[in-house]
Amino acid sequence: MKSKFYQFCHEGTKTPCFTKARKTGNYIQCLLRDLVPACPVGRSLWHFLTFRNGLKYLKIIFLSGFLSIPFLMHPADAQENLSSDQLFQQARTAAFKQKDYPQAIALCKEALAKSPDYSDISVFLGRLYTWSHYPDSAREQFKEVLKQHPDNLDAASAFTDLEYWNDNDSAALIYCNAGLKYHPASPELLLKKARILNNLRRYRDAYAIADTLLQIDPKNSAARSLAESIKNNSSRNKLGITYDYVYFNKNYPSSAAWQLVSIDYSRQTKLGSVIGIINYANRFHTNGMQAEINAYPHISNTFYCYLDGGYSNNLPVFPTWRGGFSLYANLPKSFEGDVGFRYLYFSSATWIYTASVGKYYKDWWFNLRTYLVPENPGLSNSYTLAARYYFGGADDYLAGSVGTGISPDDKAISVLLSNKKLMAQKLSFEYRRTFRKLNIFFVSGTYIHEEIKAGTYGNQLDMGIGYQRRF
Questions:
Q1: Which of 111, 153, 163, 266 could make an S-S bridge to 238, C-beta 3.0–4.6 Å?
Q2: pLDDT tens across 172-182, in order?
Q3: Distances 370 to 161, 341, 349, 461 between C-alpha atoms, Å
Q4: Distance between CA atoms of residues 60 and 286, nearest Å
């Protein structure tokens, strides 16, 4: 048998005052006007507290304890009276803060029972199913929303994500295009489409979409990073020519200028981009030629490689052999990194180890690279800090760098690494611009202050110009 106190509390929650309190949330007013005076124990204690006005803290304790009784008796009442918006907010809290997807799903279902046409909740429920690895349930939610609202941007984006994450690139492209039909300038959908096309190895289309997005949103660092990673794959063929002129001041034993001409041809293959290069140089009053090949094999969405190999029988104009390898990783939050080595063989072998970390931020790209050369004893090292400011597509930028030492990747002056113990400081710039989408022009300049021999320093200036044609 229920106690009289329980019966009092249970009946009290049915009073008109308490019914109104459940709707308005004003339970204190109900307690003061109805429940407290109706209870003998409560009435006596209330008179005592009123008489002892100074004991206001005890009154607060009493009210707080008494106020909790209705919720203990009817815990579901408050939940049942929550609006669909309140349930939606609880679902988001459960999903994002508590990582409780089952609870979030239950709350979304309860909210949809109150508001069946609330598309934002339906889309969020579909995303919850996606994150919980229930793709069929997610598809059902997204299809229903798009059936009622074909222009729903969030539904199209979520449906695209579902198929993309489940390696259904063709289906992802269909839903992405459906969203772009109504929102052709959506940065969100354009970025997703570029990624999908890149996965499908439709590199030219992927690059074109990424370039379009950068015209709309130049500060989109994710698009910038993606465009940079696929630009070598964007055209099936590319032909280029570069000319470098290197000036030396009078402190050098021979101040005769160096000249270097490079002609390169790039071809896109299923494995990635492959580049053949012929280098001609006039150095040390001697002519020489070098044959070289580069490749950028694609490994996954995250990793790709750089491979380099070259040969020349014109020492010292070129090293007899050169080679290189780097493993690149596209990291979260628009970061990138690589580790690898370079190899140059003059009269003896020179091994250089390299690593770098880069970051895309709005219109900018930053990179810090180091080259490490083992010596006996010790280790020689050099560092280069580079930055690019993009004002258009992936081939429209102004770049600058500052650093120490000689880079084995700088073909105009890399032969100076044959004397790797000498020190150098350098400052460089590059301006690159695309014309009519398929034509790329660039100019560059590098100033080097280096140690010629112990205690003797010289200055040199490398000026370059180049052109590339995509086709």
A1: 266
A2: 999 999 999 99
A3: 37, 11, 20, 22
A4: 97
